[in-house]
Amino acid sequence: MEELLMTTIKDIAKASGVSVTTVSRALNGYSDVNEKTRRKIIEVAEVLNYSPNSLARGLVMKKSKTIGLLVSGFNKESIKDNFTFEVLTGINQFAAETDYDLVLFNTNSSKQREKTYAQLCKERRVDGAIIQGIKTDDPYLKEVVDSDIPCVLVDIPIKTENVGYVTTDNVLGAEKAVSYLLELGHRHVAMINGHEFAFVSEERLQGYKNVLKSATIKFRKEWVVNGLFQESAAEEQARILLESFPEITAIFCASDLMALGCIKAAQKLGRTVPEQLSVIGYDDILLASYVTPSLSTIAQNKALLGYSAAKLLIQMLEGEAKPQSIIIETELIERESAIRLSN
Amino acid sequence: MEELLMTTIKDIAKASGVSVTTVSRALNGYSDVNEKTRRKIIEVAEVLNYSPNSLARGLVMKKSKTIGLLVSGFNKESIKDNFTFEVLTGINQFAAETDYDLVLFNTNSSKQREKTYAQLCKERRVDGAIIQGIKTDDPYLKEVVDSDIPCVLVDIPIKTENVGYVTTDNVLGAEKAVSYLLELGHRHVAMINGHEFAFVSEERLQGYKNVLKSATIKFRKEWVVNGLFQESAAEEQARILLESFPEITAIFCASDLMALGCIKAAQKLGRTVPEQLSVIGYDDILLASYVTPSLSTIAQNKALLGYSAAKLLIQMLEGEAKPQSIIIETELIERESAIRLSN
DNA sequence: TTGAAAGCGCTAACAA
DNA sequence: TTGTTAGCGCTTTCAA
């Protein structure tokens, strides 16, 4: 509206009888300015209700003090497992301790998202970016590696000159889950995985295989299906799995949402959970503790994931850290959906 | 990093043998530039991998094409009712259809949040702001009304020269809920409200009163307690309420989260829901359909709330609309937590 | 149809 | 300790 009213350092300079340079220095806390002058300037600035123009500052300093957020998960589906939101919470929490603000980019492309990752970031002149929830075949991903924009990836293990990442140990997490099922006496353990374009899926599958191997249980690839991280797709896959191989007594799901779908499928087939089928999930989403039966699962600290990502990125930006990989611990949560195999 | 590599219109001008003015006009689609020249310029721009500098543009144009988001709900508690997130989803959805980006401000003040609302916005030069989840006694709120920054409020009915709002009809929503309970035969209906610094609480209370009145049921103020929109506080309040007035057969809760707490309290007191106590919530959060018993509730279209807020704001910014109030419909969702009173 | 010049608000040499 | 000057990358009169 009244742009005319916006005070600038020029106004302050005039009002306090000094040059703009001095105002700039005074306001930015430089030491080479007379204390009296500084006090005067600060007072005038307050009277005139001055706010620095970050655009102008950014233009000359070549840094905007903003971080770009590229998240694919701002949509209906991701409301259920609010993974995206929880990570965001963590990012925001750390950012709040700094003078960086967050810029949300609109990647959920309405049709012709013609702008590339780099363009998005370069145009807004973000100092760095956090990327989350994109598939390994996403064109954006290649760009990240090539571009020279400092960046932290969530759950995508790529490390370069200016790209770091934060993730959990998915192999170990899956091992915990499957070991647990074996400890409960299960031998016929299937897996509902996500999809082939997710690193976490690769790793969780590896964990599954590892445990089977060390228990000398034969790996059967037809016992591993992809549920696309969706409740409905997982339900369908679980149905097929359970119909084809009724001898399965336990299923490891690569996400809680898919575990929910899996349980639905079992129930529709007349198999009660956990009595006639043990199910363990992954993530520990909010729903996990509220559904009946409550979900045993591998918990990820999602907020910490976000917090660490923001922290790493900002440290990189401030030259306090090199890009690195941060691995967050997971934890087995025992609830009701998996129990000892009855014989 | 390699800031030196950033192409500017100056580079393009040099490479294509024209002035920066012409480049600017060509790239911005002005008509007064020769088609041949334009093609040349665009080609060069692509070759040089040009991205416009939004900081520079914003500085001269006095608009940043960004929208500030002031949300108080980026924290652990708000993960349960992910109201905040769903609204954000809607905002993002509309923004994605435009060329505006979203800037998340860190209002969840770590101690000394010394910056005011206006400062936040002015510093970043956001063109407008969407404010959500702040209490009516929040100092930010007064500022909004005073400041000349275009702004849309979510669930706070204030309209001024440059402030509009989006909300649901909370009076009507509450009326639907309480009417429903009465239709089910209940006469002893209590209410668990939020807190006194929420407009929605005032309005829902009004709706509650309205229905009682038209049913000639006496309003008892000791039957209305505040649960602060929190599950635990509501549980405590519900316990006190039910212990003091065992004749209560139904409770209207001003949020689903509080309904959850309320149900817990009832169950701990040995009253089963819905058989011995009917409970109806408000919001229709994700959990509502997953818990047992599932929650009957008044559904708000949260994504639409956000979508409409973003739409209104951007229309205001583009001069296509004046600030106005938008009211979104609510809907009664019948599930399991409220049933006909048995006699 | 094009270009020269000015200026958005700020910071940063360099001089004084 | 302070001021002068230049310039960040862009848009926009105004003149040609």
From TrEMBL, chains A, B:
GO terms for molecular function: DNA-binding transcription factor activity; transcription cis-regulatory region binding. This is Substrate-binding domain-containing protein. CDD domains: HTH_LacI (cd01392), PBP1_LacI_sugar_binding-like (cd06267). Gene3D superfamilies: 3.40.50.2300, lambda repressor-like DNA-binding domains. InterPro entries: Cro/C1-type_HTH (IPR001387), HTH_LacI (IPR000843), LacI/GalR-like_sensor (IPR046335), Lambda_DNA-bd_dom_sf (IPR010982), Peripla_BP_I (IPR028082). Keywords: DNA-binding, Transcription, Transcription regulation. Residues 8-55 form the HTH cro/C1-type domain. Coiled coil: none annotated. Residues 7-61 form the HTH lacI-type domain. It comes from Metabacillus lacus.
